[in-house]
Amino acid sequence: MTRIFGSPGRYVQGQGVIDSIEKYLSFDGSQAALLLDEQIIDIVAEPLGTGLAASGFTVESIALDEVPTDDRIDRIVDEIDATDVVVGAGGGRTLDITKAVAARLETSIVTVPTIASTDAPTSSLSVIYTEAGDFETLQFHGFNPDLVVVDTELIAAAPTRLFRSGIADALATWFEADTAYQAHAKNVFEGHSTRTAHAIAREAYETITEHGVTAVTAVEQNAVTPSVEAVVEANTLMSGLGFESGGLAAAHAIHDGLTHLDLHGATHGEKVNLGTITQLVLEGRPKDELHEFIELSIELGLPVTLEEIGLTETDAATLRRAAEAACEPVETIHNEPFEVTPSAVVNALETADRVGRTLKDG
Ligand SMILES: [Zn+2]
Predict the structure, then answer these.
(1) In the chain, where are the structural domains located?
(2) Which CATH number fits domain 160-361: 2.40.110.10, 2.10.70.10, 1.20.1090.10, 2.40.440.10?
(3) Binning pLDDT at 50, 70 and 90, where does residue 186 land?
(4) What confidence tens digit (pLDDT) does each residue in 274-300 have?
(5) Is pLDDT of 12 > 80?
(6) How many A from CA of 179 to the centre of ligand 1?
(7) Cα 104 to Cα 237: distance, rounded to the nearest angstrom
(8) Which residues are catalytic?
(9) d(CA 208, CA 234)
(10) In this structure, which residues have their CB less than 5 angstroms from ion ligand 1?
(11) Taking the model in full, what pTM does it have?
């Protein structure tokens, strides 16, 4: 059994850290490409540009407002003359473009997440979409970002719903990484998990049970507190390392299945949360464990029913479409230590929804 653990080269987190990014840049070269999410360009362009210039880089900035498609990535690669480092600031899609562009140009990568809702900042892969905006494929780059810079002031100022979504994604990390560990399933690096990745995933869960609710309250006021710092670390670093080096299981596969239904804009993390509850049912977890997770979700303001993620049609045929997609051979649902069939997933989804509704009403 070969164990593999991957991670970014360095991780920096704190209030206002983008204002002194030059302290953390230790790359050779003189050319930098700065890819900026259009929505936050006014906030980050100046400090990042100044910091890169202070480190001796000539900066070429490119504004992004599109989903990561192969064509879009090719166009950006063509647009950049020559560069030694690609720095991306924004949400998951901007960071996925950044990593793909840097991989094609074979340069260093810096990610600057401005929301804490996904695992994109630390991971070695990009989610690629079709022109229509549907999921197309996962692109594996073979290496992780060299530097991740997380400014908690920016994160706390972003919409609370996205912060909550990151919490849901981080909670799933523990249940999936633990299942993958017990089942000796392979992780993203095609290796087996380490005790390190397993422990990090566990810490993500514990950090959120201890600090999640107070952190959400603080972020609602755009405030940075020690609990916000703890949860940003859980959402970004622990969740990112935990999923990639620990492994995924049913929760993310069920998320993927749910994306085949009409969900009216539920976020990644919101769909994952239903996936986690369904995974717990599928695994036959005891009532106390299942209820504890659902009650924590309710306290955190996370969805626990299909209706809450925007699914109005919950008949068996609709759920079957999601279940069949979740059980495609490439899906990580097959990391569960038993055979999973679409029928078992439909039963688990119906039960998860029912328990969620009961506890929500109670
Ligand atoms: Zn996720």
Answers:
(1) 10-156, 160-361
(2) 1.20.1090.10
(3) very high
(4) 999 999 999 999 999 999 999 999 999
(5) yes
(6) 16
(7) 25
(8) 169, 252, 255, 268
(9) 7
(10) 169
(11) 0.96
